[in-house]
Hints:
Blueprint: H1 10-24, H2 43-54, E1 58-71, E2 76-86, E3 94-102, E4 105-106, H3 108-112, E5 116-119, E6 140-151, E7 154-165, E8 168-177, E9 183-190, E10 194-196, E11 199-210, E12 219-233, E13 236-253
Antiparallel strand pairs: 1-2, 1-13, 2-3, 3-4, 3-5, 6-7, 7-8, 8-9, 9-11, 10-11, 11-12, 12-13
Amino acid sequence: MSIHTTLTKPVYRRLCSRTLTAALVITALSVPPSIVAQTVVPVLWSQAVQIARANQMWVPALVEVTERVRDERNEVVETTDLILSIDEAARDLRWELVSAIVNGADRTRAAQNGKQVGLFTGSDDAPQERVFDPALQGSISNIEERGLRVISRRRCETFAFHLTTDEGVWHGDAMIERASGVPIEIHLRNLEGYHESDGRIWNLEATIRYNPDAAAWYPTDIAYTMDLESRIFPFFTFRGRAEVVVQPTEYLWLGESAE
């Protein structure tokens, strides 16, 4: 029996779809930032939000996605490797599936079924991947400075925070470079996860790394791990752990060109 059946279940695909969609999307927002639900917002955090605002028109043009599912014995039972791209000339912001390898077999042609896999649109489905989005600041609370951390020779202030979403609270740690205000890395945890009638996902952890350039700031690596449970047949439930990594390797700027 192929464990690939588990990946067709909504409980797993729901999260993976959100992970992929939000990781690929950098939405152009014109709304002003909301007030964070606390008395004082640290200056460095406010700088990070402004940097995020200035970089909202960067769009990932080429993305590599890897998924690994492990069983309760920690053995890999499912592998998926995808490559997606956006045709810059078309400017219709539609993803094209370049390659799909499932369990070592090339499934590209079967997965394409037409050359496009989805319309590139904004999404509110994964706010945990848009912590510094100005429009989400009203959902951020309990921002606390936690001291210095050095990442790739960059001196960063660590901030603990809570992000409240429709499906629970994410507990996070954000590393922001002290000298520039550029967000360098974020770690998030959601122990509750998502529950559905045919399974659940919990113990979610995410790490997001960014290009450390205030003029070209965007995610370069988004990695999730999660425990999952999916009912495949009435008398069989698969339990294991999944790892999903999304790596945008090329970006396009869709804003106005500097004169």
